[in-house]
């Protein structure tokens, strides 16, 4: 089944312009299909978050947030797969699987759109075109965003709009 709809825009092109820095991963590559290890168990994956490391962020950075968003989901609001906030500025890497457990310092993960706390891997509709998964590290200008652990990813993203100094983006894809 192919859903007949236009390709969604890059969601970060719709936000105010900010600086950029570098994010790399040993597990996912920009523009390439994500390995099944990192996809949702509902389609045979292991739901493991990918390893990420980042560098070159602004000196004014006080913390980081890490997110994974599917702009190609067949909803008006996309689909949040992961949003971790308040990572200490000293943390410049998340190990493979970090999205499923405790995070360093006072950092915490919010509920994703599967209604689960932490990382939830890709699960696009069967037969749909490749979905783009925007894995983003946000350099934040405050040590901690004023968010409760039960805040929605959309609310956290709204708050990030006003506190992001720069973004580092990887956009791997997945298609069943």
Outline the structure in words.
- This protein starts with 18 loop residues before the first strand and ends with a strand.
- It has 176 residues and is mainly beta.
- The strands form 2 sheets. Strands 1, 4, 5, 7, 8, 9 and 10 form a 7-stranded mixed β-sheet that branches. It has a 3-stranded antiparallel β-sheet with strand order 2-3-6, with no helix packed on it.
- The chain contains 1 helix and 10 strands; from the N terminus they run E-E-E-E-E-E-E-E-H-E-E.
- It has one domain: Phosphatidylethanolamine-binding Protein.
- Strand 4 and strand 5 form a beta hairpin.
- The longest helix is centred in the C-terminal third of the chain and has 9 residues, at 153-161.
- The chain has one helix at 153-161; strands at 19-20, 22-24, 52-55, 63-70, 79-88, 93-94, 108-109, 131-140, 164-170, 173-174.
- It is globular, with a radius of gyration of 15 Å.
Notable characteristics:
28% strand, mainly beta, 5% helix, three-stranded antiparallel beta sheet, 176 residues
The number of helices is 1
- Contiguous low-pLDDT stretches (5 residues minimum) are none
Largest sheet: 7 strands, mixed
E-strand count = 10
SSE series: EEEEEEEEHEE
CATH architecture name = Alpha-Beta Complex
The CATH superfamily is known as PEBP-like
Q: What is the 3D form? A: globular
Q: Structural class, from helix and strand content?
A: mainly beta
Strand content: 25-35%
How many structurally independent domains?
Answer: 1
